[in-house]
Design brief:
The complex is a heterodimer of chains A (207) and B (508). Chain A is of the alpha/beta class and 207 residues long. Helices cover 35% and strands 16% of the residues of chain A. Classes of the chains: A alpha/beta (207), B mainly alpha (508).
Chain lengths: 207, 508
């Protein structure tokens, strides 16, 4: 159960993701999908219910100790860092040495096919490139679970399909457990092995 | 935790520096002094009347003179547009005594101590307020909207009256309200350029308290004026609250006439500081560097009880100390105002705006005068009050920059494992750098030029440059005046250096 600004956003949603697999959560906009991801990441408090990873309850663990990656819908790339520094951020926080970080960043850049953009300013990236940087950044510290919030909105159709194939391959290759939120059935079919549907919105969004 | 400490610090600063002195004044005015008798004392009614009519005339002049370049700079792309914009907006941060001294130097002697000089100085100051407020709004007026009106049969005049003006009105009204408060409570400019019968209330408050030893009369005036400003300010902030969205319009190439007119105005603006610097080299019998030499000989032979070298050091030290208090507190308040959209933070930061600096200065000498509270002669009081006076301007300058930082970035860092401390170092601090730089520029320039409160607080060994300028201009003779213009030139340079240095550090 999650409340936001005194309004109940989510109530009675239960889901389970098998290790190494991708689950899609579907539902129309306003059904609380984003809030669900934010609750799992610890960015909004959960009023009742629990978040568990590998059997351990992390409901009251602060966000930065959860090891749950999140690809934000609007990417949230750090504007004062270039592509490589964005991707390497989580590794610097972990205290890796520069050499290892460089290797890991190069490997991820290769995987999302941005090898030539290493030192580029993130403000100059296209929408699809920025999304791939955000994905690489979230994957870099090898999170136990990766959350993807509407990863393909705002991209044109061909780019959308191309990116869906890439995300699917990256997730499989890295064996990442992932939870995808989307209103688009095509995304779900391309990436997820299973899906659940959000219950209808508790209150009309107009209120 | 850190945020809460800053909060307490900011509130304490505003309380000690502004609120307690104001309450002290209010209590003092109710106790003992006959409020109605003050009204009948000589000079009081004249000062009220002069504040009002001079304020109205100065405001109208500043708005009329300011709207013309605002129109040109919003609608047209002319050569050196950025330089022209900078030249027209810089006067706002210049110290009042510098502008006063510059107009003494620039105008022919027969205009010294005239209303014309005061109004011109106010226009010079406040055109920047009009340009700063109106240009963003006017730039955001969509050309297609005007095209739409034209296709519906509106003549250019009708378009201006029925489409452009209603869209600009809130910005113009907001600017005019602020300009009026600035002109009606003008102090430094009027102290230097006014004369008998040409005092604003602030000048009259100083005259009563210091020259006539009528502290109770000054106190009553200060309380009355503060009440009026608070009401005006409440009205003003309501009208200025509506902010239009910023879009960048495509600007047309300016016709020759428009370009020439804008640059003529810029040249006139530049002539004022140029006249100041020239006057520092001009004695009654020709060119001379005596005024500048007096800066290094410490003022011997000027028969003034201050050492100019000490004053330079004092001004710089006070400015740095005030900034090191006002900047962290101001940035913290701005963050509190943005993140919690808390009205309280905004309120705390706005409090010092309600009282003019002169009233704050008077309040401090009236309130902190007994027992262990008697700190009137303490040197640290000056930078403390400078910080309190600068705080609202710092917050106002910084809030839009803090608003522009997406809150999602810190959340993104948290999902990547960064602790709150780490998020502050890696994300907040670097992104706040431009805001900190702007805040520093505001605080430094305001402190270096602060005259209102400082004129009550400085002692012989804590004199600052604006006080020296005023003292020297009050002496007869060529050498003190040349030296005053030289000191004012130093102030001018210090202010411009502070602003451009910070501006550069933001860009790189």
């Amino acid at each position: 159960m999650v409340d936001l600004d005194g309004r109940r956003i989510i109530d009675g949603v239960s889901l389970h993701v098998d290790t190494g697999r991708t689950l899609a959560v579907c539902g129309p906009s306003g059904s609380g999908k984003t809030t669900l991801l934010r609750a799992i990441a610890g960015l909004v408090p959960v009023r009742s219910g629990a978040v568990e990873v590998d059997g351990a309850d992390i409901t009251s663990t602060p966000t930065h100790r959860r090891s749950i990656g999140l690809v934000f819908q609007d990417n949230q790339l750090f504007p004062h860092m270039n592509v490589a520094r964005n991707i390497g951020y989580g590794l610097r926080v972990l205290g890796w040495d520069a050499g290892r970080i460089g290797q890991r960043v190069d490997e991820l850049l290769e995987r999302v096919q941005l090898g030539d953009r290493r030192d580029q300013d993130v403000a100059t990236l296209s929408g699809g490139e920025a999304k791939r940087v955000a994905l690489a950044r979230a994957l870099a510290p090898s999170p136990r679970v990766l959350l993807l919030d509407e990863p393909f909105t705002g991209l044109d159709r061909s780019l959308h399909d191309q990116l869906a194939v890439m995300v699917d391959r990256v997730l499989r290759d890295s064996g990442t457990t992932a939870l995808l939120v989307s209103h688009d059935p095509a995304d779900v079919a391309a990436i997820a092995q299973s899906r659940i549907d959000m219950p209808p919105a508790l209150e009309p969004p107009s209120r | 935790m850190i945020a809460r400490l800053r909060w307490i610090g900011a509130t304490a600063l505003v309380a000690v520096g502004v609120v307690v002195p104001l309450v002290g004044l209010a209590v003092d005015s109710l106790r003992g002094s006959d409020i109605t008798a003050v009204w009948s004392r000589s000079g009081v009614r004249e000062a009220v009347w002069f504040s009002l009519w001079q304020g109205v005339v100065s405001t109208l002049a500043a708005v009329v003179v300011g709207l013309a370049p605002a129109w040109a700079l919003s609608r047209f792309d002319l050569p050196g547009r950025r330089v022209a914009l900078a030249a027209l907006t810089v006067p706002f941060v210049l110290p009042t005594v510098v502008v006063g001294a510059a107009f003494l130097a620039a105008l022919p002697d027969r205009f010294d101590r005239s209303v014309l000089a005061i109004v011109l100085a106010h226009v010079f100051f406040n055109v920047s307020v009009v340009v700063r407020t109106v240009v963003p709004t006017w730039t955001a007026v969509d050309e297609h909207l005007l095209d739409a009106a034209r296709t519906l049969g509106a003549s250019p005049l009708t378009v201006a009256r029925t489409v452009v003006w209603p869209l600009l009105r809130p910005a113009v009204a907001g600017a005019a309200g602020l300009v009026f408060v600035m002109c009606a409570t003008s102090y430094g400019v009027v102290r230097l350029l006014g004369g008998p019968g040409r005092s604003t209330l602030d000048v009259e408050i100083y005259r009563r308290a210091v020259d006539l030893a009528d502290v109770s009369g000054a106190t009553v005036l200060a309380v009355a004026q503060t009440l009026v400003i608070v009401v005006l300010f409440a009205v003003w902030s309501r009208s200025a609250a509506r902010r239009s969205s910023i879009t960048t319009a495509r600007r047309r190439r300016a016709p020759i006439g428009v370009g020439v007119a804008v640059w003529a105005l810029v040249a006139a603006f530049m002539a004022v500081p140029a006249a100041l610097v020239l006057a520092s080299f001009r004695s009654t019998d020709g060119w001379s560097t005596a005024g500048w030499r007096a800066l290094f000989t410490g003022g011997d032979g000027l028969r003034v009880p201050v050492d100019i070298g000490d004053a330079i050091v004092n001004s710089l030290v006070f400015a740095v100390l005030a900034a090191s208090v006002a900047v962290p507190l101001g940035v913290a308040l701005a963050r509190a105002a943005v993140s919690s959209s808390s009205r309280l933070a905004d309120f705390v930061a706005s409090l010092p705006l309600g009282a003019s600096a002169v009233v704050v200065g008077l309040g401090i000498i009236v309130t902190y005068d007994t027992g262990i509270l008697d700190v009137r002669g303490e040197w640290w009081l000056v930078p403390l009050v400078h910080a309190a006076v600068a705080l609202p301007f710092v917050v106002r300058a910084v809030v839009p920059m803090v608003e522009a930082i997406p809150p999602g970035l810190a959340q993104a860092a948290a999902t990547l494992g960064a602790s709150p401390w780490r998020r502050w170092i890696d994300i907040d601090l670097p992104l706040l750098r431009p805001a900190v730089a702007t805040a520093s520029a505001f605080s430094l320039t305001m402190s270096i030029g602060e005259f209102g409160a400082t004129s009550f607080l400085t002692r012989r060994d804590t004199t600052t440059l604006p006080i020296v300028v005023d003292t020297l201009l009050g002496r007869a003779g060529s050498l003190p005046h040349m030296t005053a213009f030289a000191v004012a030139s130093v102030l001018l340079v210090l202010t411009v250096v502070a602003v451009t240095a910070v501006d550069r550090s933001v860009r790189t």
